[in-house]
TrEMBL record:
Keywords annotated in UniProt: Repeat, RNA-binding
Positions of region (Disordered): 29-49
Repressor keyword on record: no
Domain K Homology: 44-98
Protein name: K Homology domain-containing protein
Protein's UniProt keywords contain Transferase: no
SUPFAM superfamilies: Eukaryotic type KH-domain (KH-domain type I)
Gene3D superfamilies: 3.30.310.210
MF term (GO), any: RNA binding
Taxonomic lineage of the native organism: Eukaryota, Viridiplantae, Streptophyta, Embryophyta, Tracheophyta
Coiled coil residues, start to end: none
Domain of life: Eukaryota
């Protein structure tokens, strides 16, 4: 899954850090995820996409969306999840979050 972060440079960096911390706690010592690209957003802010393993998506979203809402509120970045191409094979271990 791809996680798409949009906001000011500081907001995006803070959101990326929080997501990586959650992933690192869940899988100590393993690769938590990876940034795929950073570009200027239309609003003059920053835009960043990172890959999240399918089995870790629930940790980022949280029960009822609580975790992701909290991350958005504390960082000021918009965090969106997005499936790759709208289809994910049932055996795929990754999804796109946008």
């Amino acid at each position: 899954m791809i996680c798409h972060l949009v906001g000011t440079s500081d907001a995006v960096a803070s959101a990326e850090k929080l997501i990586n911390e959650v992933l690192a706690e869940a899988e100590a010592g393993a690769s938590a995820g990876g940034g795929t690209r950073r570009m200027a957003a239309q609003s003059g802010g920053d835009e960043f996409s990172m890959q999240i393993p399918n089995n870790k998506v629930g940790l980022i979203i949280g029960k009822g969306g609580e975790t992701i809402k909290s991350m958005q509120a504390s960082t000021g970045a918009r965090i969106q999840s997005h499936h790759c191409g709208g289809y994910v094979a049932k055996w795929s271990r990754e999804r796109e979050v946008k």
